[in-house]
Amino acid sequence: MKRKKMLALFLAAVMAVPTAAMGSGITASASDDIPEDVIPDETITLDVYDQLANYSGEQIGWFAQVMLEKFNVKLNIIDDQDGVYETRMESGDLGDIVIWGNDGDEYLEAVNQGLLFDWEDEDLLSEYGSYIEENMESALEKNRNLSGGTIYGFGHDVAVEADDTQDAMYTWDIRWDLYAELGYPEINDLDDLLDVLIQMKEICPTDDNGNATYAMSIFPDWDGDMVMYVKSMATAYYGYDEFGIGLYDPETGTYHDALEEDGPYLTMLKFYNQLYQNGLLDPDSMTQTYDNACEDYQNGTAFFNIFNFLGESMYNTDAHLADNEDGSMGSALYPLVPTEARPIIYGQTIYGSNRIWSIGANTEYPELCMAIINWLATPEGRLTAEYGPEDVCWYYDEDGYLCLTELGAACKADVNTEMTDGYSGTFDDGSFKMNNTTWALDTANLDSTVGETYNYKKWESQQTEASTLVEADWREYTGCTTFDEYVKTSDYVLSPGTDYSTSSKSDELQVVWSQVTNCIKNGSWNAIYAETDEEFDAIVEQMTTDAYDYGFEECIEFQQNEAEIRHAAEEAALAATGE
Hints:
By secondary structure, the protein is an alpha+beta fold. It has a 6-stranded mixed sheet. A 3-stranded antiparallel sheet has the order 12-8-13. It has a 3-stranded antiparallel sheet with strand order 9-10-11, sandwiched between helices. A hairpin with a 5-residue loop joins strand 16 and strand 17. Helix 21 (about 505-530) runs antiparallel to helix 22. The longest helix has 26 residues, at about 550-575.
């Protein structure tokens, strides 16, 4: 067994004291939740094959230093570019730590080919993943049921309790200072939104650097079965969740395929084309990367986004928020949900969601991989991955309340803040490149003696009066103090957390699925860039014809059956929580 090889390699470490000098020159501390025998004497590099990564290469910056201090390891992030999955599957070696974008066909194929490590083999989980074993029982059982009776990992965003909602993600962030300057016009629907965005560009034609502004700057990096931003707009407006090649209504269990005439996907595809035809969509959107789009929001190039993590989180730096010298308000991206919009709000799930943490079957270091994932599932690990090193970026005060340090607050306000206290680079440089979560941000922190969650926006220490004129103006207009509170005053749609997982597809259907999804993604981007309504209609018609020729009806039939399974799981979950 490779585990025995690992134990032999680290035999000397078993006798080591908790603090030892590492080959890197950095002192490592074996904290209470990290078994001492797992830490190597010499620095090793672990390959992390990560289908969620927006980054490729060695983890750098503060998180790399944390990994050296705690585990004496370096992390080599391998992102999921075209052909990477197939190449690694053919080689039989997926990597040391393996992170899946979903728990569907590719994950199940790896399970069936024996390319993932059994977490119960020789008590790996109980000896090196004890925190996970003790606190994520339902998530582990979901994985066992999904994987044919064997535990290979667990899904992301695990909750302690099932009867609460996550923080709103679809917040409809818009440049509040520009909206105020326009006199707070009503935005009831998408037509109203388009009119306001046109007016915003007229009064703010250039960004911080003098470049042309747009309403939105989007990117193709996260496109899956459809164009991500198109399907997400439907999720934000109708409350329909992405579901295969289409969208799913959690309230009725209805499945809307992506090519449904006047359906949610094609409606939102037309909205993006309207943005383009009105000069409101960054023309580089089809070819640029996630990082390029982030820069646009940081620089004020774009002034609207449906996501909080690509809207206010990017733009709202201290410099932008600060009151102007003439006494007027600064600038900010703040939520403004159209009256007719029904953004989805995801329920908590004790089963975890679909982005799986796992370990490659051929790793030489299963114990070390398990210990790292286990630490990431501890409150310390979860908070560190989110906010930075403990006592440097966050801490518990004498009453047990979580607080951001001055540096931690600066990093949340501006990810380009330089780290201190011995940590190098900016916060963004060293950010957690694995890009997956263990505990849900809004679930209970089991180390908290006062019942707080991992979401800093809801910490007692963060509940303060408005610190700027623009924030005060937004609070006065909405009557709310937090973005989550505001979005949840809308007529939102609840998507309950369940143990539902996508069924596997036959090899034949997978071929059809790939052809259909490529057709729809390529056709959608071409439609977004149509110069006229007539050209848009012609592209959509051709895309639809081609998709059906490839076998789209087979995909619809499969997904409609999945909708029935999911709806049954949701009804069971709601019944269990008394809703």
